[in-house]
Design goal:
The chain has 236 residues and is α/β, with parallel strands linked by helices. The chain folds into two domains: 126 residues, Response regulator (Rossmann fold); 101 residues, Arc Repressor Mutant, subunit A (Orthogonal Bundle), CATH 1.10.10. The protein contains eight helices and twelve strands. Helix 4 links the parallel strand 4 and strand 5. The mean pLDDT is 86.
Amino acid sequence: MPEIILVVEDELSLQETLAYNLKKEGYTVETVGDGRAALEAARRLKPDLIVLDIMLPEMDGFEVARILRKEMSTAILMLTARDDEIDRVVGLEVGADDYLTKPFSLRELLARVKAQLRRARLLREEMGKSKDIAPPHEKLTFDNLTIDLTRREVTLNGEALQIKPKEYELLLFLAEHRRQMLSREFILERVWGWDFIGDSRTVDVHVRWLRQKIEADSSNPTRIVTVRGGGYRFEG
């Protein structure tokens, strides 16, 4: 069954170009041109990927991503109108999985689309395997911090944290390699995938967000420590 992609873009010529080329690749594509329509379509379609522009009528892409991320784990590829680091960081912060700066080549867009869909398939397969072989309630516990592998939930002092899917994957990966120095590049490859088109700053941003949630003092971290010239080490 073809994977479903929702394209949210108000510039009609670009919307049509994206839809045409994605359909040529064999995907089922639906297009909308404003933020509110994007929410309605995403809830109805449950797409495998959302290509989401930031500058939209009715509701901008940041708000759309923020709302949808609370409701579903669908991959989101955000389109930014300018090469502005603030846009990229905010996009990641509200739940986007990747970003692409306009103008971009169709070849690069298709490569990122394929990378996100491939990663989503692998994640679904891994989750399916874990349901078959995991113990009824498998947990990793580090003092007052608990990672529940069955529920994909993180708790601190018994309270569930509001944690994004990629933050959970990163924390679990670090915890599974406790007290090992992991380079940013290695983390990027294993958590985001070898075909992720981005740089190691993505890791730094997500580590910062995790520290704000699990550290007693995020400016003086004791759980996820920085290894000078190397990367990060999870102490527990």
